[in-house]
């Protein structure tokens, strides 16, 4: 018994726990009853439980009847009769608490019969059929209009009465009820008539809606009647009246009918609408293709026939789109909810592409934003048309705050899309709200979306509305350029494919752009510019994309295109900047030409366009500059061409290595002189454009990053970006990167204020050590900062102590320099290893790198030249009668003001140079230390100072040459001018080979300036004696005690200096011929550039010029068909060289070649294993005795020296020889005692003279043979004799080393030196004619010979008519 009751208790617990869940109750009851049917539970027990359950819920009988109904079906299908009996007994037991009526509804008639609830099942079924037929199929008879019209006439009269009085819908409804009852009217027909009258009196919404709401009992009936009305107008050429749309919209709005019920009655179907939309898109694309494609005449005829057929089809007007009509009515009454539902059923922008709907939606937006626009968007002084809100209380609420716009306005605009173009006033309102929002609120993403989806597409569909374009720019300029460019990108690349109208507009724009660009010339710029302006107001992205594609192909379009852009709006200019950047960043375009040696012409064309456009028009530069910066970050330097063009055009700063000497001279003056005479073109009116460029760089913090990236990228071009690129291209990219850095740095230095520049440029040690900036670039960036700081400090000191004396000013300037430069001196120590500072002082190093040509000299001739030009200009203005008087006055005033500025600038620079020179005079004694050899000092000076800077820029090349001359003129201690010049001229092969093309121009200019100085000294004895004699730079003996300018024996005399200059010319010839013979492109190109640059000063000797001419002529023949650029260079140089022949002189006129009758006293030479004596200069024409070999054979230590004279035992000596003599015949002026001493030291001259005569004869004979051999194309080098001479010289040195005293060995060593000299001279003679073809042989014997020379510890004499300058430290 307990076992049977357990499920019942569980059942009760389950039911009571889930008493509110009908499903659980049904499931539990079903399980319980099923257990009875199965026979598992007793009937009476379950019946009592079910009786108790009836009290739980009111609908429990009905739930139980449902369970019985399910069991009735299940048990009726079972074969076991006992289970059916159990079921019948259970239902019978429950009759006491389940009503019979419910069971009769749910159970099968046979079951009811077995329970005794009905007599016969068959009769019961018949009765049910009769009731259903009467209920659902028998019509009630009413009087129709055609049968009985009196009642309907009264009804229409009742509904059509004047409703202005106290008549209400309730009173009319009572009358209608009376009429229906009296005349037995059909209620549905009455409702139809009410709707008809409402349709004719649609202004009485409130009355009829209230009446219908009171009258109607079933919404579906009303919906069917409306649907029947709409169906009546679905025939072709029928037009659905707007009044019907209105009443349907009103009924929907007041929820009297459901949109889903009415929507099915409207035509066309949604599928048909989708098909129509797809068809429109395909037609638009087809039209676009036709506009782009070239169509043949036959195809044109076929297209015309098809168009005619389509027009005929269109003549048959299709039925109205009732869904769109209803949508318009909904929008008119302000029912946005239902309107949105309808638009969601259609393709995007399909509904609003119909003008009526777009205007209705625009009107609704007007009403929604009106209060907020009045508060936050209305411009000052504007009144605007006052809009009255809808009387409909259910319409969208007007927005009072920007946050309210989220509610409905933004979604309305989203559905409106590009069709906001139908209402320019609303377009302007939305833009002004956006501007107001940017000042107040933070709904940025929403307004960006509206701009992307609504504003920009809408302006594409507007007809040439420049005002709207400017209005839109008023909003867009408040966004960062990143947001704007994203919008332009979406507009250009995605928007035009979203709608058929936009597809057509794009095609039409391209077609019109082609038409304009085909006819654009310099002559019709104005007319074409206006057409371009009109077209750009609506679709700038499409227009500019096509124009840029044309410019990339035809660069001659750049000038007319730039001039034609003056009619653009501000928005269009900004879009143009984006389109240019997109064109530059096109990944499908190669930035190199197919030969991989030059930059693509399309990139060069775009760069030129950038410079011209950004200079002429007020376009924001931030995006373009950031693009270049990003490219540099990525290690790509191609796009630096853009920055170069922009800076050149906007700031007027040109970078070229083809400057004339007059321009270069002008570039060493002040800013005004640079602008007037330093550039090829007179670049005027750059003040505004350069200010714009400066502001962008400062606002976006791009000035220093660009400088640092360019400085780092120079080496990156070679080592990272170079890769597999052609060497010519790598060199070009390196030059472009370097030139742009120089140009950009010059712009910053001349345009940034002192505070801005100092604030942004870090100290020199941070630049080099932290940012890894190359030293030359780091000092280039820091140099203006030092100049600014010194001038600022100088002005402070002048104000602090007022004194007008020039001397006081100079002292204050020196004090200012010390205060500013002392931290720099400390900072530069970390840039190089400690051993560097053993020879150069940091002060000297910093001084060299911090000064410029502006500090060293005043270009008086350049100032005078420009002032004279202005005077001539003034005179021409005065004499020109065609110029109006007012214009003539303005021009004269401008020229006069400019003239005064130049004169004032010249005076200011003169004072500055005097101060700087005084400062250098005070500093010079501490510049160079004497801790190591002079050769080592000069090496470090060349390596760390001269060579890096002389190839940095053309002005720096001139500066380096002038600085060397200045250091010489200042009589700087421990600086050997001769050695410096010798090192510069004697080893140019490797320097030339390692230069790029532009660096070759600068290096050539540097050599030219150095040669100018040397040529000036060489050409006139008085000049030489004035500027070189008694100067420490021309000492031939350096004494540890310092320089005492009184001993003439320590100086290099004039004639020996001429020999040295000849040797330098010879070394230049040898290096040049070597480079020309290598066959390497870079070697040949660079040496030709260098030779062209130094042509004013070299060659001056006839035989050297002939040797060069021969080699260059050969290059012309070899390269004519192989490498045209080398051929052009060689031909250009060859022509100019021939024109210089008239200025060349024979060798005996260039320097004195006669042999002296007697030998002079040879200077003492240092011997021993540790000797540091090295040949510094020599005129040897072969590898023997050159300073080049001396440089390679630097000694690492100093040894003990053997003194010749006790008084000068600690002196370092320089040996100069002329044949076998050391001093010139000017020694005759000395006392007889000195002559006698020299004679005692000199070996017998008669045998030596005889020997020399014999060797002279042999030498002449050999020279003649060598010249003949050269003409025959043979190459002979007297190597055997040179080896023999070296062996003899070495044995002489060994003998001297073994001797304890240097004096006894002198005669023997001198004789050996004479022998060597003569043998080498013979070789030199032949070398000019023949061996110049191969001046640096690469054979093993040459290498062993060079190694032998490195091991030589003593000096060796040079050939006749030459000088060997030897430097050593005691």
From TrEMBL:
GO CC, one annotated term: THO complex part of transcription export complex
THO complex subunit 2 N-terminal domain ranges (all copies): 25-376, 400-530
Which stretches are annotated as coiled coil?
A: 860-923
Question: Where do the THO complex subunitTHOC2 N-terminal domain residues begin and end?
Answer: 532-607
Example GO molecular function term?
A: mRNA binding
Stretches of Low complexity bias are at 1356-1370
Region Disordered: start and end of each range?
Answer: 300-321, 1150-1370
Localisation: Nucleus
Entry keyword Coiled coil: yes
Q: Where is the composition biased (Polar residues)?
A: 1161-1180, 1198-1220
- Basic and acidic residues: compositionally biased ranges: 300-320, 1181-1197, 1222-1242, 1249-1298, 1306-1325
Q: Which InterPro entries match?
A: Tho2, THO_THOC2_C, THO_THOC2_N, THOC2_N
Q: Which Pfam families match?
A: Tho2 (PF11262), Thoc2 (PF11732), THOC2_N (PF16134)
Q: Which terms are listed as keywords in the entry?
A: Coiled coil, Nucleus
Domain THO complex subunitTHOC2 C-terminal per the UniProt entry, residue ranges: 837-1137
One GO biological process term: mRNA processing
Subunit structure, interactors included: Component of the THO subcomplex, which is composed of THOC1, THOC2, THOC3, THOC5, THOC6 and THOC7. The THO subcomplex interacts with DDX39B to form the THO-DDX39B complex which multimerizes into a 28-subunit tetrameric assembly. Component of the transcription/export (TREX) complex at least composed of ALYREF/THOC4, DDX39B, SARNP/CIP29, CHTOP and the THO subcomplex; in the complex interacts with THOC1, THOC3, THOC5, THOC7 and DDX39B. TREX seems to have a dynamic structure involving ATP-dependent remodeling. Interacts with POLDIP3 and ZC3H11A.
- Which family does the similarity line name? Belongs to the THOC2 family.
What's the protein name?
Answer: THO complex subunit 2
Origin species: Sparus aurata (Gilthead sea bream)
Q: Which gene encodes it?
A: THOC2
């Amino acid at each position: 018994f307990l076992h049977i009751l357990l499920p019942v208790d569980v059942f009760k617990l389950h039911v009571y726990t889930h008493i509110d869940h009908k499903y659980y109750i049904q499931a539990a009851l079903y399980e319980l009853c099923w257990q009875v049917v199965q026979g598992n539970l007793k009937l009476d027990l379950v019946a009592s439980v079910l009786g108790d359950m009836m009290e739980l819920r009111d609908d429990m009988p009905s739930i139980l009847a449902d369970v019985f109904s399910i069991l009735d079906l299940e048990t009726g299908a079972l074969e076991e009769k006992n289970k059916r009996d159990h079921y019948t007994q259970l239902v019978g037991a429950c009759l006491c608490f389940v009503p019979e009526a419910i069971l009769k509804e749910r159970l099968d008639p046979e079951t009811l019969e077995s329970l005794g609830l009905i007599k016969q099942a068959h009769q019961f079924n018949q009765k049910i059929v009769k009731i259903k037929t009467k209920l659902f199929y028998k019509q009630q008879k009413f009087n129709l209009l055609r049968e009985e019209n009196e009642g309907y006439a009264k009804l229409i009269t009742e509904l059509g009465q004047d409703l202005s009085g106290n008549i209400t819908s309730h009173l009319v409804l009572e009358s209608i009820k009376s009429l229906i009852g009296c005349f037995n009217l059909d209620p549905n027909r009455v409702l139809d008539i009410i709707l008809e009258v409402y349709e004719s009196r649609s202004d009485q919404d409130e009355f009829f809606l209230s009446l219908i709401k009171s009258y109607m009992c079933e919404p579906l009936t009303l919906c069917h009647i409306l649907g029947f009305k709409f169906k009546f107008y679905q025939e072709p050429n029928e037009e659905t009246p707007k009044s019907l749309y209105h009443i349907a919209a009103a009924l929907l709005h007041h929820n009297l009918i459901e949109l889903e019920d009415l929507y099915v009655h409207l035509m066309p179907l949604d599928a048909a609408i989708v098909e129509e939309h797809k068809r429109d898109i395909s037609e638009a694309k087809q039209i676009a293709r036709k506009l782009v494609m070239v169509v043949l005449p036959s195809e044109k005829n076929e297209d015309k026939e098809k168009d005619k057929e389509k027009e005929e089809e269109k003549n048959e007007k299709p039925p109205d789109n009732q869904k769109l009509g209803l949508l318009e009515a909904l929008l008119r009454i302000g029912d946005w909810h239902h309107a949105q539902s309808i638009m969601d059923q259609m393709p995007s922008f399909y509904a609003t592409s119909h003008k009526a709907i777009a205007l209705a939606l625009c009107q609704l937006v007007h009403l929604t934003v009106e209060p907020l626009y009045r508060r936050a968007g209305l411009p000052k002084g504007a009144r605007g048309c006052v809009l009255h809100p809808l009387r409909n209380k259910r319409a969208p609420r007007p927005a009072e705050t920007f946050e309210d716009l989220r509610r409905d306005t933004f979604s309305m605009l989203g559905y409106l899309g590009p069709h906001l173009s139908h209402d320019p006033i609303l377009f302007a309102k939305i833009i002004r709200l956006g501007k107001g929002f940017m000042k107040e609120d933070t709904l940025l993403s929403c307004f960006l979306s509206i701009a992307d989806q609504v504003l920009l597409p809408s302006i594409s569909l507007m007809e040439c509305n420049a005002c709207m374009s400017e209005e839109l720019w008023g909003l867009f300029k408040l966004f960062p350029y990143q947001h704007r460019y994203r919008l332009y990108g979406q507009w250009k690349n995605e928007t035009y494919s979203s709608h058929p109208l936009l597809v057509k507009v794009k095609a039409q724009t391209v077609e019109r752009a082609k038409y304009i660009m085909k006819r654009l010339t310099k002559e019709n710029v104005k007319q074409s510019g206006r057409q371009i302006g009109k077209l750009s107001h609506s679709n700038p992205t499409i227009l500019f994309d096509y124009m840029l594609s044309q410019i990339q192909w035809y660069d001659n379009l750049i000038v007319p295109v730039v001039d034609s852009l003056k009619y653009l709006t501000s928005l269009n200019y900004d879009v143009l900047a984006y389109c240019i950047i997109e064109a530059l960043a096109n990944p499908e375009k190669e930035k190199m030409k197919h030969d991989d040696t030059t930059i693509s012409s399309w990139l060069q064309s775009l760069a030129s366009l950038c410079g011209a456009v950004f200079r002429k028009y007020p376009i924001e530069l931030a995006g373009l500059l950031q693009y270049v910066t990003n490219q540099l970050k990525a290690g790509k330097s191609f796009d630096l061409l853009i920055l170069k063009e922009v800076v050149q055009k906007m700031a007027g700063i040109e970078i070229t290595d083809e400057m004339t000497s007059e321009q270069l001279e002008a570039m060493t003056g002040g800013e005004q002189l640079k602008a007037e005479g330093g550039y090829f073109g007179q670049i005027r009116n750059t003040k505004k454009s350069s200010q714009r460029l400066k502001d962008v760089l400062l606002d976006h913090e791009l000035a220093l990053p660009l400088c640092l990236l360019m400085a780092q990228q120079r080496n990156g071009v070679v080592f990272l970006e170079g890769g597999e690129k052609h060497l010519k291209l790598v060199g070009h990219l390196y030059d472009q990167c370097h030139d742009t850095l120089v140009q950009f740095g010059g712009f910053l230095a001349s345009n940034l204020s002192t505070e801005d520049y100092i604030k942004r440029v870090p100290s020199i040690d941070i630049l080099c050590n932290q940012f890894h900036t190359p030293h030359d670039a780091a000092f280039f960036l820091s140099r203006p900062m030092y100049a600014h700081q010194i001038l600022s400090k100088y002005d402070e000191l002048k104000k602090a102590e007022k004194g007008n004396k020039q001397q006081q000013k100079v002292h204050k300037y020196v004090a200012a320099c010390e205060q500013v430069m002392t931290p720099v001196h400390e900072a530069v120590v970390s840039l190089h290893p400690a051993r560097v500072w053993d020879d150069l002082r940091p002060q000297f190093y910093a001084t060299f790198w911090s000064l410029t040509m502006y500090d060293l000299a005043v270009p008086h001739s350049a100032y005078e030249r420009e002032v004279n030009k202005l005077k001539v200009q003034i005179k021409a203005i005065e004499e020109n009668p065609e110029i109006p008087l007012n214009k003539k006055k303005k021009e004269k005033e401008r020229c006069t003001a400019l003239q005064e500025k130049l004169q004032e600038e010249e005076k200011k620079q003169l004072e500055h140079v005097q101060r700087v020179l005084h400062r250098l005079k005070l500093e010079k004694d501490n510049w160079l230390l004497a801790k190591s050899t002079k050769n080592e000092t000069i090496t470090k000076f060349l390596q760390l100072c001269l060579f890096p800077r002389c190839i940095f820029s053309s002005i720096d090349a001139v500066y380096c040459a002038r600085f060397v001359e200045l250091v010489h003129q200042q009589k700087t201690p421990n600086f050997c001018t001769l050695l410096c010049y010798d090192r510069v001229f004697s080893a140019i092969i490797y320097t030339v080979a390692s230069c790029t093309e532009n660096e070759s121009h600068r290096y050539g200019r540097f050599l030219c300036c150095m040669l100018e100085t040397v040529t000036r000294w060489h050409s006139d004895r008085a000049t030489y004696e004035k500027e070189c004699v008694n100067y420490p730079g021309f000492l031939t003996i350096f004494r540890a005690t310092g320089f005492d300018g009184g001993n003439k024996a320590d100086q290099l005399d004039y004639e020996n200096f001429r020999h040295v200059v000849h040797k330098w010319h010879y070394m230049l010839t040898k290096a040049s011929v070597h480079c020309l013979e290598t066959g390497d492109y870079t070697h040949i190109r660079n040496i030709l550039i260098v030779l062209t640059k130094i042509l004013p000063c070299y060659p001056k000797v006839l035989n050297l010029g002939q040797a060069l001419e021969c080699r260059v002529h050969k290059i012309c023949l070899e390269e004519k068909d192989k490498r045209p650029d080398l051929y052009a260079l060689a031909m250009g140089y060859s022509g100019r060289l021939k024109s210089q022949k008239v200025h060349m002189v024979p060798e005996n006129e260039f320097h004195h070649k006669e042999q002296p009758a007697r030998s002079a006293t040879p200077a003492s030479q240092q011997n021993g294993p540790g000797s540091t004596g090295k040949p510094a200069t020599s005129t040897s024409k072969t590898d023997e005795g050159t300073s080049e070999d001396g440089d390679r054979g630097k000694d690492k230590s100093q040894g003990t020296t053997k003194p010749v004279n006790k008084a000068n035992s600690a002196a370092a000596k320089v040996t100069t020889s002329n044949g076998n003599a050391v001093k010139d015949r000017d020694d005759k002026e000395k006392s007889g005692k000195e002559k006698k001493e020299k004679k005692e030291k000199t070996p017998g001259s008669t045998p030596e003279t005889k020997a020399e005569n014999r060797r002279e004869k042999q030498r002449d004979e050999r020279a003649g043979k060598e010249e003949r051999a050269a003409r025959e194309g043979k190459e002979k080098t007297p190597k055997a004799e040179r080896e023999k001479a070296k062996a003899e010289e070495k044995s002489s040195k060994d003998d001297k080393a073994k001797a304890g005293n240097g004096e006894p060995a002198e005669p023997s060593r001198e004789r050996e030196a004479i022998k060597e000299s003569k043998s080498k001279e013979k070789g030199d003679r032949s070398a000019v004619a023949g061996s110049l073809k191969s001046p640096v042989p690469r054979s093993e014997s040459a290498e062993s010979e060079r190694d032998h020379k490195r091991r030589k510890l003593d000096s060796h004499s040079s050939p006749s008519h030459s000088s060997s300058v030897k430097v050593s430290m005691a």
